[in-house]
Amino acid sequence: MACSSGTAALHLMLLGLGVGPGDWVIVPSLTFLATANAVRYTGAEVYFADVNPETGLLDAEHLSYALAKSNSEPKAIIAVHLNGQCASMRNLKECAGDIVLLEDACHALGSSEILSPEKHLKTGSCYYSHAAAFSSHAVKTIASGEGGVVTTNDRNFAEKLRLYRNHGMVRDNDELASNPWHYEMHSLGFNYRLTDIQCALGRSQLSKLEGFVKKREKLRERYSICLKMLGPYVKPIDTIDSCKPAWHLAVALIDFEKLGIQRLDVMRKLSDLGVGTQVHYIPVHKQPYYQMRYGKFTLRGCEAYYSRCLSLPLWPDMTLAEVDFVVSTLADILGVKQKF
Known about the structure:
Blueprint lengths: L1 E2 L2 H12 L6 E5 L4 H9 L3 E5 L10 H9 L7 E5 L8 H8 L3 E5 L7 E5 L2 E4 L8 E5 L12 E5 L2 H11 L3 E2 L2 H6 L5 E2 L10 H11 L2 H20 L5 E3 L6 E2 L5 E5 L1 H4 L3 H10 L15 H7 L5 H9 E4 L7 H15 L6
Parallel strand pairs: 2-3, 2-4, 4-5, 5-8
Antiparallel strand pairs: 1-9, 6-7, 6-13, 8-9, 10-11, 12-14, 14-15
Helix pairs in contact: 1-2, 1-5, 3-4, 8-13
């Protein structure tokens, strides 16, 4: 089901589950604001879980800890697939048991979970989850300018989401026969539709998805090889064996403190040389709104990842030579030598 944004997709999933005041939802803190904000839109509360400091992903260990911290059961758990790499949904589901598991897959269109050499599950197939949310924002693997998608195997759930997407408005076929203008609203909904123009653009890009994924994979593989030559204080993020990623971001983990340099200085110097970079993400539990609501606390994995991460350029038409230029430029600024 298409909708107006990845944020809308997240909100619709939670509405479809009936999440509301008095409920709480587990969300990894290392994510974009929208994942947690969608929970708050419903009136429910957020419990921020920690993540693996080398991948940025929620794993069973940190989910188990989050579940053990409360005497009540969460209404849902949102697993966030980060950078194009998917969390192990099989492991998370074993840990979650009967608790509803949702996927924020806005970074992971085209990725798969590897259950065995013969069995790969495409992200969005919802084999272990109830539903998955995707984004087709302009910077994602395929783009419709802005947009979102929800996938699920539950037809009744999907129909609920369609109602919420379109003002809660329904048309009765019998009534329409005599009154073609007739419509009724039995529940409050939203204007979360995707425009026809955006749908056309998104559908035209679907046929290119596999090619985009392969190009990004080749570029990210080159980044991985080159970054490993800058050790010991520079490395690519760890990859997990259970995932065949569709890379959205190419992230370097850099120990800026050990290298004696500020991340901001590195980013400015790279920018001066024509290399744009970004940081994904500030842990959401550090945001003033959430600190005022839940207080200040430490999530060591999130903060260890955040303190070192730097997103490097990655787009399908990028060349391997441009990857080499980015890494050699980064090495010069950091004052490290590439070890061939």
